């Protein structure tokens, strides 16, 4: 797994074998720079799933909601961040 300072800005990194990925990690898109680590393990709670379109752009389900720090709430669809109205502040566009 990449160290937080090694995460490429604006890119999600899937960790684990393609047939059974374990995590997806990326920098918080709010601009705060916090590395996010989401479990893809179907046996864990909470858990997320990731799909890629034909261009390789990720969609993550369900939404991601940070309850600490910047308190943002967003969807990642087709490699773009879609902010939810209940996010804790004004965040940058993609």
TrEMBL record:
<keyword id="KW-0614">Plasmid</keyword>
<dbReference type="Pfam" id="PF20137">
    <property type="entry name" value="BubE"/>
</dbReference>
<protein>
    <submittedName>
        <fullName>DUF6527 family protein</fullName>
    </submittedName>
</protein>
<dbReference type="InterPro" id="IPR045384">
    <property type="entry name" value="DUF6527"/>
</dbReference>
């Amino acid at each position: 797994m990449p160290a937080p300072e090694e995460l490429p800005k604006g890119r999600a990194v899937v960790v684990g074998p393609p047939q059974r990925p374990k995590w997806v990690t990326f920098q918080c898109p709010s601009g705060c720079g916090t590395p996010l680590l989401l479990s893809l393990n179907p046996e864990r709670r909470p858990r997320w799933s990731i799909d890629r379109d034909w261009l390789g752009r990720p969609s993550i389900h369900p939404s991601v909601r940070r309850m600490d720090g910047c308190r943002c709430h967003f969807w990642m669809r087709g490699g773009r961040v879609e902010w939810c109205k209940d996010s804790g502040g004004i965040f940058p566009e993609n």
